[in-house]
C-alpha cells in the first residue's frame, strides 16, 4: 500500500474516533446521527431567520413541537369590540350551547425536507469539538436553508411527487400560487405598459379592502427595485424630476427581495405547439405536433405547461419538424397535448400584503445523519419539517408580469 494512502487512512481513522465524541454513535460505534435538542433546534431556527437578511423576521415564523399545529388568526377578520354580552362564555364549563372556540384557525402540516453536504477530514480539523461542529454546520446550511425557504414562500407549487431537481419548490404552495387560485391578481400581461410605476402600486393597494391596507408592504425583486429607483429616486435633480420617494409608496414600505425571480416566463403566444404523446422525464427530446423550425433556434427558451403546477422553462438545443431537443433533461413527465410556447424571460411579480399574513412553520425536530466516505470525510444529511401558509388570501394582492428587463 502506498505510504501516502496509508497516512490518509490513519488520519481518517483518527478523525472518525474524534467525531464519535462530537455526535451520537450507532450500536457498532460508527457515527450515525445526532438529534438536536429542542433548545438547540430553536436556536437554529433563530439562526436561519437571521441569515435571511431580516426577511423571515417580517413573516410569522411558528416553531412547532409536532408535525401539526393549530394556530389562531392574527390579522383582522371582523370587529373586535362589540356591545357587552355579545360574546358567549363557558365560565370554565364545557358543553354549553354557543360556547366554542372561533373558526378563525389555521392548521400547519409540516412536510419533511432534507439537504446533503460533505465535510472533508481537513475541514473537520478545526471544528471537531461538539460546540464547534454544531456552529460549523449552522454556518454551512443556515444561509442555504434561509434562501430556499424564502424562494419557496414566493414560488412554491406543491406536487404529489416533487422532483429534487427543483429543490423544495414543488413541496409547498407559495404565495403566488395561492393568490392565483383565489383570484387576487392584477395581471399586466395585456396592459398598455408592463413597466413598474407608483401608479401600479397605488391602484393595487385600492383593490385591497380598507381593513387590510394597514400594515401592508410591497415585495419586489432587485431588478424591479432598480427600475423604480431610476424612475423616482432623484435627490440631486440629475434626471429632471428632483423627486425622492425613498422606499415606500402610499405608506407601503418597499422590500427589495434578491431571491424573487426577475426571469420568469412571458410567453410569446404566436409561437406555440402541443406535445405529441407523453414525453417521459429524463429524456432531452420533446415530441411536438407543429413544425417550429422557422420560429425557434438554439438558445431560445420555451415554457411547457405555462400556468400549471408543473410549469418548466427549458433551453432549445435543436429543432426538427416534429421534435425539440433541449439542453436540459425533462424534469416531469409531459402529458400528451400539453401546450408549449416560445418565451421571453423578462417577467417578475410583486406581492402586496401585511408580512405577518405569511406563515412559516418549522418543527423543532431536526436530525443530522452521517455516512463515512473513507478516506476523505463525511456526508451529512440534514432533515427538518416545515410548512408554508398564508393566513388570509383576501389580505394580499399579486401583481403579475411586471417587465423586469428589455431583451
Structural commentary:
- The protein has helices at 3-22, 38-51, 55-58, 121-124, 130-155, 175-182, 198-207, 222-232, and strands spanning 33-35, 60-64, 68-72, 105-109, 111-120, 185-187, 217-220, 248-249, 252-256, 264-274, 285-287, 301-304, 312-319, 323-326, 339-353, 358-363, 367-373, 377-390, 396-403.
- Strands 6, 7, 8, 9, 10, 11, 12, 13, 14, 15 and 19 form an eleven-stranded mixed sheet that branches. Strands 1, 2, 5, 16, 17 and 18 form a six-stranded mixed sheet that branches.
- It contains eight helices and 19 strands.
- Residues 24-31 and 95-99 have low confidence and may be disordered.
- Strand 12 (301-304) and strand 13 (312-319) form a beta hairpin.
- It has three domains: 3-63 and 108-169 and 359-389, no CATH class; 184-259, no CATH class; 264-347, Thrombin, subunit H (Beta Barrel).
- It has 407 residues and is α+β, with helices and mostly antiparallel strands.
End-to-end span in angstroms? Answer: 59 Å
pLDDT < 50 runs, ≥5 residues: 24-31, 95-99
Percent helix among the residues? Answer: 10-25%
CA-atom Rg in angstroms: 26 Å
User: What is the approximate shape?
Assistant: globular
Which structural class matches the secondary elements? alpha+beta
Summed over residues and divided by their number, the pLDDT gives a mean of 85
Order of helices and strands: HEHHEEEEHHHEHEHEEEEEEEEEEEE
Describe the sheet with the most strands: 11 strands, mixed
Number of helices: 8
Share of β-strand residues: 25-35%
Number of strands: 19
Number of domains: 3
